[in-house]
Design brief:
Length: 241
C-alpha cells in the first residue's frame, strides 16, 4: 500500500521540446532532465513548444500555470522531424523537378532546332524531291564537260566500226579519253590528248580481289614487260588482237 501511494504521488516537471503529428494523433516530447526525454500523447490542443509541464504517474500531462512566461525558456536544440507542424510545406514538384528541368531543356533544344532549320532550308526544298527545285536550273546553265558517245560517233564513225564487234563497244569513248565537251563543240582547236595505253588499260584490268571471274584481268608483272599494252593489243578492240 505504501508503494502504491508513492506511485500515485509521483510527478516530474519538464519542458515541451517537440510536438509531433502521427496517425491523426498529437504527441509531445518532454525533456525531464538532461538525457531523459518522454514522448507522450498530448490530449491538450493548446500545448506548444516551450511549455512547462508536470507529468504524473499515469503519464498525464498538465501545464504549469502562473509564474514567469515558461514558454520562452531556452531549450536544447532538437532536429525537426517530418511530422512537426512548423515544418515548411513540401513543394509539389520536389520529387521529380529534375525530370521537368530536363524535359524543358529538350523542349528548348527542339524549338531552337526547328527555328534554325526553317531559316537554313530554302523555300523550294522538297518540291520535286530531296533537293532544291532551283538546283535543276542551276545545273542547266552550266556548260557540260562531257560530250556524250553520240557526239564522238558523229565524227569518228570509223573508230566506232572497229569497236562494235569487240567487248569495248559498250565502253564510252570519254571513259578513256576524258571529258571532250569543248572539243565536240569546237570551242578549241587542240586535239584530245592520247591517253597512256598502259595506264588506262591497267586501271580496269589489273587483277584485284573481288573482281568477277569472267572479267578479263591480268597480274601485271606476270603478264607482260613494262611496255605499252598496245604493242600486243589494239586500243579500240583489244579482244580481237
Amino acid at each position: 500500500m505504501h508503494n502504491e501511494s508513492d506511485q500515485r504521488g509521483f510527478s516530474a516537471e519538464g519542458a515541451v521540446v517537440e510536438i509531433l503529428e502521427r496517425g491523426g494523433e498529437r504527441f509531445a516530447k518532454i525533456l525531464i532532465e538532461p538525457g531523459t526525454v518522454l514522448e507522450l500523447p498530448a490530449a491538450s490542443s493548446d500545448l506548444s513548444l516551450g511549455d512547462r509541464v508536470i507529468v504524473d504517474a499515469s503519464l498525464n500531462i498538465e501545464r504549469v500555470r502562473g509564474g514567469p512566461d515558461p514558454a520562452r525558456i531556452l531549450l536544447p536544440s532538437v532536429p525537426a522531424t517530418s511530422g512537426a507542424p512548423d515544418e515548411p510545406a513540401r513543394p509539389v514538384f520536389r520529387d521529380y523537378e529534375h525530370v521537368l528541368r530536363m524535359a524543358g531543356l529538350f523542349a528548348l533544344a527542339i524549338v531552337v532546332f526547328l527555328g534554325w532549320r526553317s531559316w537554313m532550308v530554302p523555300d523550294d526544298f522538297g518540291v520535286y524531291g530531296h533537293y532544291r527545285a532551283g538546283a535543276i536550273a542551276d545545273a542547266a546553265i552550266r556548260t557540260p564537260g562531257y560530250a556524250g558517245q553520240a557526239s564522238c560517233v558523229e565524227c569518228h564513225d570509223d573508230v566506232q566500226q572497229v569497236r562494235l564487234p569487240d567487248k569495248h563497244a559498250t565502253v564510252s569513248c570519254e571513259a578513256c579519253h576524258g571529258p571532250l565537251g569543248r572539243h565536240a563543240r569546237s570551242e578549241t582547236d587542240v586535239a584530245p590528248i592520247r591517253p597512256s595505253p598502259r595506264a588506262v588499260c591497267l586501271t580496269c584490268h589489273t587483277a584485284v580481289t573481288g573482281m568477277p571471274a569472267t572479267f578479263p584481268k591480268v597480274i601485271v608483272n606476270e603478264h607482260s614487260d613494262a611496255g605499252p599494252c598496245t604493242e600486243c593489243h589494239k586500243a579500240h578492240a583489244p579482244g580481237g588482237s
